[in-house]
Amino acid sequence: MTNKNIDIENFDQELDNICEECLNKDESVSQNLILMGYKICKSCRISKTIFPI
Prior knowledge:
The chain is mostly helical. It has one domain (about 5-50). Helices cover about 55% and strands about 0% of the residues. The chain has three helices and no strands. The termini are far apart.
């Protein structure tokens, strides 16, 4: 197995669309991972923006 195959497998595991905060599956998780670098869904992102604790 080459390094390229390992990187592809890790990338597929990261894009499982499961939020790290609420553990719900949502399409916005992969979008936020690409845009912000965090694996959070749209609703968790809004709550973190309003209440940043």
